[in-house]
């Protein structure tokens, strides 16, 4: 079976992982992709990043670059995902 998780499953995994990491900690988008598709996870990186931007716009997570929260326009390269209020 090689079905791709839908957007709601990806969002739920992002939220579950940043919540589990807790305030002051962050996760990598690849952590989410690997949890959802352990073998063929790389194609999920785009959807994970896209949905992370959506969750950030809803103030449910923050996207970090080099340890600092960045607005959507500056999201590029290596990023981390975290709960709002805690910096990792």
TrEMBL record:
Pfam families assigned to the protein according to its UniProt record, in alphabetical order: DUF3253
InterPro entries in the record: DUF3253, WH-like_DNA-bd_sf, WH_DNA-bd_sf
Domain of life: Bacteria
Protein name as catalogued: DUF3253 domain-containing protein
Organism the protein comes from: Plastoroseomonas hellenica
């Amino acid at each position: 079976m090689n079905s791709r998780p839908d957007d709601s499953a990806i969002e739920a995994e992002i939220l579950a992982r940043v919540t589990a990491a807790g305030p002051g900690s962050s996760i990598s988008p690849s952590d989410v992709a690997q949890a959802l598709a352990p073998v063929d996870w790389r194609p999920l990186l785009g959807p994970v990043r896209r949905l992370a931007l959506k969750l950030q716009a809803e103030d449910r997570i923050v996207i970090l670059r080099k340890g600092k929260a960045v607005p959507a326009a500056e999201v590029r390269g290596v990023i981390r995902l975290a709960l709002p209020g805690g910096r990792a």
